[in-house]
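$ ./design --mode recover --in tokens.txt
reading tokens...
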């Protein structure tokens, strides 16, 4: 298994027992923070870390305890989040889920989203995909009856999309219940059937849902300038997407890019409704 020990950071109450026990709390994180470093022109693994290892912090229901949740939501945060920002995003997403009436297990996936310049951060998001994929496979080995939902905010969409591609490229039959992109910072044509991730989406998740905001300043300006392309979280899909792909224009519901996963100003109630 790819797990290792990590220092526990204050994450709220640990959750055990039945699904209802998870209501109002989140249990822990998968963390790869400190696994990668940006040099002047490159990205490298730090000592003792490699392509597939990850660590845990706090309780991972069903993996580090004997809980058997019906579902496990894994939230992958956006670019530019240090540890404090990542925890704040996870807490906000937790509060939004609980306010929307969702009471299954939730954990965060915390990565080096504030390391290096734009191109290096994109590479770090990419290289985290194999680590996330290894966790998913480890977890499904332990709890085959638990459905996994991957939720990605902003640049976390790169990690999640590449994770599906990780399964495809290695010939794994691993699938997840759902993938949800909240203001996803990946190219809008990459989710099309003939795009980079189209086949992986078709084969390795039951449903992929994209939530986009047409006046997202970060995606509409920063992403477009850095990538010379439009983001799926800004325009929706360009081209014909796979049959299991859905998208929702949440422009009027979301106040700004950072708010997608947060209570009050985000789109989490729509996400939860679509999981029902």
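writing sequence...
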């Amino acid at each position: 298994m790819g797990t290792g020990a990590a220092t526990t950071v204050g994450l709220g109450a640990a959750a055990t027992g039945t699904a209802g026990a998870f209501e109002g709390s989140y249990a822990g994180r998968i963390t790869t923070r400190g696994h990668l470093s940006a040099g002047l022109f490159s990205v490298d693994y730090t000592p003792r870390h490699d392509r597939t290892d990850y660590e845990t912090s706090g309780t991972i229901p069903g993996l580090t305890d004997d809980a058997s949740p019906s579902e496990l939501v894994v939230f992958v945060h956006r670019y530019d989040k240090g540890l404090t920002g990542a925890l704040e995003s996870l807490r906000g997403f937790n509060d939004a889920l609980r306010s929307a009436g969702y009471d299954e297990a939730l954990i965060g996936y915390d990565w080096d989203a504030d390391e290096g310049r734009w191109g290096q951060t994109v590479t770090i998001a990419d290289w985290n995909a194999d680590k996330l994929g290894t966790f998913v496979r480890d977890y499904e080995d332990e709890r085959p009856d638990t459905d996994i939902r991957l939720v990605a905010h902003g640049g976390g969409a790169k990690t999640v999309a590449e994770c599906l591609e990780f399964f495809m490229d290695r010939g794994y039959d691993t699938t997840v219940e759902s993938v949800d992109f909240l203001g996803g910072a990946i190219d809008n044509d990459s989710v099309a059937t003939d795009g980079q991730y189209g086949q992986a989406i078709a084969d390795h998740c039951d449903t992929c849902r994209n939530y986009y905001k047409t006046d997202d300043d970060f995606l509409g300006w920063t992403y477009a300038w850095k990538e010379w392309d439009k983001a799926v979280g800004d325009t929706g899909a360009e081209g014909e997407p796979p049959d299991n792909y859905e998208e929702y224009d949440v422009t009027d519901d979301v106040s700004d890019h950072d708010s997608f996963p947060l209570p009050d100003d985000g789109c989490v109630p729509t996400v939860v409704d679509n999981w029902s």
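exit 0
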